Amino acid sequence: MLRRQLLGYGLVGGLQLLADWLCFVALTSMGAAVVPANLAGRVLGASMGVWLNGRFTFAAKDAPPPLGRGPLLRFVVFWLAMTALSTLAVHQLDALQGLHGAWLGKPLVDAGLAAISFAAAKYWIYR
């Protein structure tokens, strides 16, 4: 079961990361500031991920998917913390390396946060 969850989480996470990054790059290339563009990308990725992970990755075989109020509230609390860390890191990358540095660094930052997110999703958010 853990292997199936890791694989599902990795696939969903890859889709989230790609959608988030594409949104971030598109918005910043059109002149949006880094912080709001990062927030918009994370909202897009989170919208996909909370549903897909709850419906497929962490759903029990014979039970309805855990998308109720409790898991959603836990997801929002955790997402806010991870988004704050991501936004701070991307803002620092932009300040130190410029916009292209932020474009290249954002996937690395968010992939690092994804490792923490798997444990939180498995043992706290979708429990």
What do these coordinates show?
By secondary structure, the chain is mainly alpha-helical. 85% of the residues lie in helices and 0% in strands. The radius of gyration is 15 Å and the shape is elongated. The mean pLDDT is 89.
3D shape: elongated
The number of strands is: 0
Distance between the termini: 14 Å
Order of helices and strands: HHHH
Give the helix/strand layout:
Blueprint: H1 2-29, H2 34-57, H3 69-97, H4 99-125
Helix pairs in contact: 1-2, 1-4, 2-3, 3-4
What are its keywords?
mainly alpha; 85% helix; 0% strand; 4 helices; 127 residues
Brief write-up:
The chain is built from 4 helices and no strands.
